[in-house]
């Protein structure tokens, strides 16, 4: 079974801090994704990566950056955290090819910015 | 823009009945739709994929339909059980293999 592990289940940070969310997958998947999930808005794509050192902006990239130095690890960075970035963050991975392949999700990091 | 809309109201049904969840999309038909299940505090889990040229897909007690005329997909759970209680997400395929998710519909199956 594919396992996607997010480093923290709950995180509390202060405004202005630089925040790192880590995600690791164990199935040698090429594609990795970062979403945020808010009530009534569903999952929204922040960034995705097709392969190592490759990244593309999703629908809501403002205030975020990402890093993918190794195939199994995809990091989401909040450059200067703000209260409107309080949310559930979900990481996913998928094997390459068409979008027909399912995405495999971690259990999320619930981030609170105070 | 392409959108996916699911009924935001929770669906409450009695155990043993069939649950039917609706997913509507805008603009052109996506090449495929995916359905996921999400339990509280957990990430979504993939359930089924249906292609545009497939009218219906089944997996055990699950059935998904794809109606390009109505721009709609229906997700059915037959003989529902309390363990089926969860939020169900519909997602359409987008350019480059990205997914656009609906906001999800919460299903509650009462014993």
Please characterize this protein's 3D structure.
The complex is a heterodimer of chains A (114) and B (111). With 114 residues, chain A is mainly β. Chain A is built from no helices and 11 strands. In chain A, strands 2, 4, 5, 6, 9, 10 and 11 form a 7-stranded mixed sheet that branches. In chain A, strands 1-3-8-7 form a 4-stranded antiparallel sheet, with no helix packed on it. Chain A is globular and about 40 Å long. The model of chain A has no long low-confidence stretch (mean pLDDT 94). By secondary structure, chain B is mostly beta strands. Chain B is 0% helix and 55% strand. In chain B, the strands form 2 sheets. In chain B, strands 2, 4, 5, 9, 10 and 11 form a 6-stranded mixed sheet that branches. A 5-stranded antiparallel sheet of chain B has the order 1-3-8-7-6, with no helix packed on it. In chain B, a hairpin with a 5-residue loop joins β9 (86-93) and β10 (99-101). The radius of gyration of chain B is 13 Å and the shape is globular. The mean pLDDT of chain B is 93. At the A-B interface, β4, β5, β9 and β10 of A face β5 of B.
Structural class of chain B: mainly beta
Summarize the amount of helix of chain B as a percent range.
under 10%
Give the termini distance of chain A in whole angstroms: 37 Å
* Shape category of chain B: globular
Estimate what percentage of residues of chain A fall within beta strands. over 45%
Mean pLDDT, all residues of chain A: 94
Largest pleated sheet of chain B: 6 strands, mixed
Keywords:
heterodimer; A: 7-stranded mixed beta sheet; B: 111 residues; 5-stranded antiparallel beta sheet
């Amino acid at each position: 079974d594919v396992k996607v592990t997010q480093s923290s289940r709950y995180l509390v940070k202060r405004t202005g801090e630089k925040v790192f969310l880590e995600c690791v997958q164990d199935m040698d998947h090429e594609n990795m994704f970062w979403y945020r999930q808010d009530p009534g808005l569903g999952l929204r794509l922040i960034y995705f990566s097709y392969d190592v050192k490759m990244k593309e902006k999703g629908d809501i990239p403002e205030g975020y950056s990402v890093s993918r130095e190794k195939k199994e690890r995809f990091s989401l960075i909040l450059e200067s955290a703000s209260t409107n970035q309080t949310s559930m963050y979900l990481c996913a991975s998928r094997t390459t090819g068409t979008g027909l392949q399912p995405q495999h999700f971690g259990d999320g990091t619930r981030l609170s910015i105070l | 823009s392409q959108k996916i809309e699911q009924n935001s109201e929770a669906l409450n049904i009695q155990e043993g009945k069939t649950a039917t969840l609706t997913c509507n999309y805008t603009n052109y038909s996506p090449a495929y739709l995916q359905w996921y299940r999400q339990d509280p505090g957990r990430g979504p889990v993939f359930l089924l994929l249906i292609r545009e040229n497939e009218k219906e897909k089944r997996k055990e007690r699950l059935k998904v339909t794809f109606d390009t005329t109505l721009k709609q997909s229906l997700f059915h759970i037959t003989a529902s059980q309390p363990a089926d209680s969860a939020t169900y997400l519909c997602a359409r395929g987008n350019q480059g293999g990205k997914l656009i998710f609906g906001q999800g519909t919460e299903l509650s199956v009462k014993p």
